[in-house]
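Can't paste images in this forum, so I'm doing it all in text. The chain is below; anyone willing to post the predicted structure tokens underneath?
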Amino acid sequence: MQTRRAPHQPMTHDIDLETYRKLLAERDEEIRRLRAIMDSFVSVDLDSGMLNRNGLIEAIKRARLWWERRREPFGVMAIKFPDMIDLSPEVARELATPIASALADTGRAVDDTGRLDPYTFVVVLREFQRQGAITVVSRMRTAIRQAIADPAITGDLRFGFVVAVEGEGVGPEDYLRMAVEAAEAATPDVPKFSRVDLV
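Text version of the structure:
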């Protein structure tokens, strides 16, 4: 005699779709929290391999020490990608690698490159003179657009500089802030400059 099977009954531990989405959101939030904790201790951006804020501050400190020994000015350059602001975090992470490569390839061995956030990159330029800024901008803009051949992303690039010369000094965090503010005030065609005096 054949036994009739009972219709499938959902198990008590079955998870509905909404609960599953909630669990995923909680997991993503926990990952973000852990990344923030790691970023506060390490000096490297986990997405791009470039320096993060901590690493850039140390790079500016080294540049300052170099100035004290050699009396050679240095600069901090910020590059803003306004068209990346609306991209998803996943796409921004994918773009970080080619941008990092482009900046490293066009920079010098003595320069340090880093990433402050998904659409703000920074280069600490050793032995830097303001009159060389336009050449630096042109070279890096070309390299970035060759690395990412999408005008929707690289059509609007903003460059801001802080040029350190003799006079009254400020802290490393101020260099970063002023460079980013200069980039935000720049136009796609004309970089913006701020001046920081060193003692």
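The longest strand covers residues 158-166. The mean pLDDT is 81.
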